Amino acid sequence: MEQDVYDVLVIGGGVAGLTAALYASRQGLKTMVVTIDVGGQLLTAPVIENFPAASPISGFELANSVLEQAKSFGAEVSNDEVLELREEKNGFRARTRGGMEYRARAVILAIGKKPRKLGVPGEDKFAGKGVSYCAVCDAPLYRGKRVAVMGWGEQAYEAASILRNYGNEVFVLYSGKSSPGSDLAKRIEDLGAKIIGGVRVEEIKGELTVKSVVFRDLESGERKELQVDGVFVELGYTADTGWLKGFVKLNERGEIVVDELCRTSREGVFAAGDVVDFPYKQAVIAAAQGAIAALSACNYLRRIAGRPEIRADWRKLGE
User: Fold this and answer.
1) Average pLDDT over residues 71-91
2) Which residues are tagged catalytic?
């Protein structure tokens, strides 16, 4: 099913995409946001304390506030997932999982990043029922229980630290050989967490919720089972941009390459937020990039229409 032609199609509904929609719609541009979930990674933040002019606020509240602003200027939102994006005469066409097709003269990619998964049986089944990708968000739900952290590095340490603060018995499982003398291992053990190294997780088991983790000792080959109430996967995040390969330029990490005006390698396509090749991944930076991408898209549309570009956002498109 095909919709009308939009001036700007924003793909992604995190703070970058919502801010882009706010700025684009405020310029009088017909704007559509297509997103799986409004808020994106903001939804994993129970409290945000470093967003300018905002008192400590939950990620949900912040996202909803920007959403309502964007809607007040006419932006539309569709809860769907874009599967394909292609260029055609006079613009672009996006096809969604829900069977919709959206046409637009300019596109802003703000799809963020997704947590890396273990890829084992039971992981998807128990997602939200014992399997979590955000210790900050979900640790309070497991107060005083036995939990496993999957991964290594600073993200695993931070997760273990947060979980220990709630009185949890914490096990850190990772595939590398246990290094009791390393600085990281010492810091984790000083928290009171137990390290199980040199293992490969093979399954997450349970009934209605998680009950155990099955892993194999990589040295002995022995298969073991650890009784836990929760599993926290801390393997970092990845850019889900495989479907954009060949459409816009990506770097070696799969991030979208943009210039200082958030322009991609394809004219008429812009990008913002955690998915772009900028080193700092913060809500305020993503919001700023969303604004830049929207204003760049506005100027692109003015340029192809033979109109002068704007340099200040307080002038509406028709002025």
Assistant:
1) 95
2) 134, 137-138
